[in-house]
Amino acid sequence: MEIFDIHSHLGKTSSGEENSPDQIVNELKTYGISKVGISCLSGISTREQNDYIYKAMKAHPDFIQGYAFINPKAPDALEEIDRCLGEYKMNGVKFHSWKHGYYPDNTPALDEIFRKIESYGVHVQTHVGTAPFSTPYTWAEYARKFPNIDFLFTHIGYYEFGFSTIEAIKDLKNVWVETSGQMDVNVLRKAIEVLGPKRICFGTDWPYKPVNIEIEKFKELGLAEEDLEWIFNKNARYLWRMDK
User: Fold this and answer.
1) Cα 69 from chain centroid (whole Å)
2) 3-state DSSP call for residue 43?
3) Which of 112, 137, 183, 197 is the most buried (most CB within 10 A)?
């Protein structure tokens, strides 16, 4: 079975550890992962961070899918979207309100930014689960406001907001969840029960999470092969627009 990792990163970690495109490709391959989507959280300039991802995409075009990392508070945010999605042909946008220090519900620039993203037809990933900046409720409001954009809420809300994330998006058909870092079996089972396998994506959050654990936890859930196909690759294939 193909395994696609829809949510990982490149760049120096918050603890100062270095990594490289070759390293992520080689490590993920050892676990049977054949494609990965990445953004860069390392550094201050999103332009430099996105350039780093683009170089990784060029170095490993069959393996790496790139995401634009956008700070809605930056004066060049719209220009950066055009550069990354237009010139660089990235196929996703990553928002991390915790890292960038803003409240999504008090960031009016996001409306224009989402209208710009909508014109490119790519999906949006949001870090969800770190209070108070990254709760599922405010991002759910943007998903409701922009029904033509596909959203991916990472970590199924993490430790604080697992069940709340599922409740917040259960009726929003344009929102998927991603599983890295979510180790509460009850949350995972609830997501499968309420959202269904067709709205759940596998991710590792490399280099922050142990890849083997992220894969093995699905074996413990005893899911049918067909359900695992959706989680491990079919949903990522759709969000990456691989069949267009």
Assistant:
1) 11
2) coil
3) 197
* Beta strand 3-10 pairing with 33-40: parallel
Could you tell me where the beta strands, DSSP code E, fall in 118-182? 123-126, 151-153, 175-178
| Mean pLDDT, rounded, of the chain | 97
Sheet holding 68-69, edge to edge: 68-69, 92-95, 123-126, 151-153, 175-178, 200-201
Pair 81, 70: CB distance under 8 Å: yes
Global confidence as pTM:
0.97
The whole-angstrom separation of Cα 41 and Cα 105 is 22
Alpha helices per DSSP H over the chain:
21-30, 46-59, 77-81, 97-100, 109-118, 136-145, 162-169, 185-194, 211-220, 225-229, 235-239
- Residue 13: per-residue pLDDT: 87
Sign of the C-alpha dihedral computed for residues 162, 176, 96 and 22 taken in this order: positive
In angstroms, the CA 223 to CA 207 distance is: 26
Mutual angle of helices 46-59 and 21-30, in 10-degree steps:
50
Ramachandran assignment for 115, one of left (phi > 0), alpha (psi -120 to 50 degrees), beta (any other): alpha
